């Protein structure tokens, strides 16, 4: 007759008793964290209050009185009729940049995360991140001195063969200081931001999901399409919205490239059609009278509202799909 020893209970490590010092550190950390979050809200509220207070004279003054002291303000125009074309130009430039940058960013991020050898992926990741460190004025100089001459013949070809499309309506301006050229520079500027976010989200895809797709006979592209991209959908949206926020507020690159105009026009190959809010503020602020400064700050308030709306929409999209993606 054999006897079996009773199973021994697994020893559980004893929990370390919290000391007064631990409780004090936890309380201090909680206070610092709460204070940091409250500080962000306070700064945001202070910016909003400043914009509203300084913009109020322009919002309550008739357009005819503003035009008497501000030479660049259209005569017989209200503030809304003045800021409308600026909002349109800002959104047009940002959307064009986003349309060009997002597909390219996703392709680069996929190449770095799933196709490139490790050494090449590391070097390419550093190169993409380095693009984000280049000042915007350098991009503006590159666009104004090099890109304008390079893309001129291309824009002329687009106007000749695709001029029946309103976006490419000709004649193309020479030199090419037009909205499409500015949008190309903006796309290059936001590309590293979107690429970095997408790359990190792609790398977070569970390996079991990828291996399961490959085990079922999927090719690498099919694995990416069925496992990686659905997992990273909200992350892609987050990166795109970050890039959109950067494009909306960009100043120097647009100021140095674009020939400004105050029209509601989709003709992105013609000069003197559109202008953005940020570039207009930079161009007019130095010589503006007090009421002119107030008018410029009022346009900045409009940009602030647009940026807030974009960020809130992005957070809503990410929060709606956070349980099914790697964005969070």
TrEMBL record:
- SUPFAM superfamilies hit by this protein: MetI-like
Q: What does this protein do?
A: Part of the binding-protein-dependent transport system for phosphate; probably responsible for the translocation of the substrate across the membrane.
- The answer to whether UniProt assigns keyword Transmembrane to this entry is yes
- Membrane topology per the record? Multi-pass membrane protein
Q: What ranges does the record list as Low complexity composition bias? A: 1-12
The protein's organism comes out as Sediminihabitans luteus
Q: Where are the transmembrane segments?
A: 28-53, 86-111, 123-142, 148-168, 180-203, 223-245, 252-271, 291-314
Q: Which GO terms describe its molecular function?
A: phosphate transmembrane transporter activity
Q: Which residues form the ABC transmembrane type-1 domain?
A: 87-314
What family does the database annotate? Belongs to the binding-protein-dependent transport system permease family. CysTW subfamily.
PROSITE patterns named in the record: ABC_TM1
Which NCBIfam families does UniProt cross-reference here?
Answer: phosphate_pstC
Q: Which GO terms describe its biological process?
A: phosphate ion transport
Q: What is the superkingdom listed in this entry's lineage?
A: Bacteria
Major place of residence: membrane
Q: Which GO terms describe its cellular component?
A: plasma membrane
Read off the Gene3D superfamilies from this record.
MetI-like
Descriptive protein name:
Phosphate transport system permease protein
Subcellular localization:
Cell membrane
Q: Which Pfam families match?
A: BPD_transp_1
Q: Which UniProt keywords apply?
A: Cell membrane, Membrane, Phosphate transport, Transmembrane, Transmembrane helix, Transport
Q: Where is this region: Disordered?
A: 1-20
């Amino acid at each position: 007759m054999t006897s079996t020893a009773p199973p021994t209970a697994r020893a559980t490590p004893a929990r370390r008793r919290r000391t007064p010092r631990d409780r004090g550190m936890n309380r201090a950390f909680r206070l610092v964290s709460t204070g940091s979050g409250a500080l962000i809200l306070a700064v945001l509220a202070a910016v909003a209050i400043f914009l509203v207070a300084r913009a109020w004279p322009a919002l309550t003054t008739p357009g005819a009185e503003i035009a008497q002291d501000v030479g660049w303000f259209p005569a017989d125009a209200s503030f809304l009729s003045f800021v409308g074309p600026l909002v349109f130009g800002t959104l047009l430039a940002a959307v064009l940049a986003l349309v060009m940058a997002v597909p390219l960013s996703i392709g680069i991020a996929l190449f770095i995360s799933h196709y490139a050898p490790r050494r090449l992926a590391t070097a390419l990741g550093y190169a993409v991140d380095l693009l984000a460190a280049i000042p915007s004025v350098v991009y503006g100089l590159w666009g104004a001195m090099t890109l304008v001459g390079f893309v001129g013949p291309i824009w002329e070809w687009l106007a000749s063969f695709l001029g029946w499309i309103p976006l490419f309506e000709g004649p193309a301006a020479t030199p090419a200081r037009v909205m499409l050229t500015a949008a190309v520079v903006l796309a290059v500027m936001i590309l590293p931001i979107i690429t970095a976010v997408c790359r990190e989200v792609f790398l977070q895809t569970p390996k079991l999901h990828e291996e399961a797709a490959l085990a079922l006979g999927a090719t690498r592209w099919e694995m990416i399409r069925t496992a990686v991209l659905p997992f990273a959908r909200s992350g892609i949206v987050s990166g795109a919205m970050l890039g959109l926020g950067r494009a909306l507020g960009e100043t120097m690159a647009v100021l140095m490239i674009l020939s400004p105009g105050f029209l509601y026009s989709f003709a992105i190959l013609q000069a003197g059609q559109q202008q953005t809010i940020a570039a207009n503020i930079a161009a007019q602020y130095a010589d503006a009278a007090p009421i002119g400064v107030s008018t410029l700050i009022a346009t900045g308030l409009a940009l602030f509202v647009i940026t807030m709306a974009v960020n809130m929409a992005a957070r809503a999209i990410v929060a709606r799909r956070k349980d099914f993606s790697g964005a969070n």
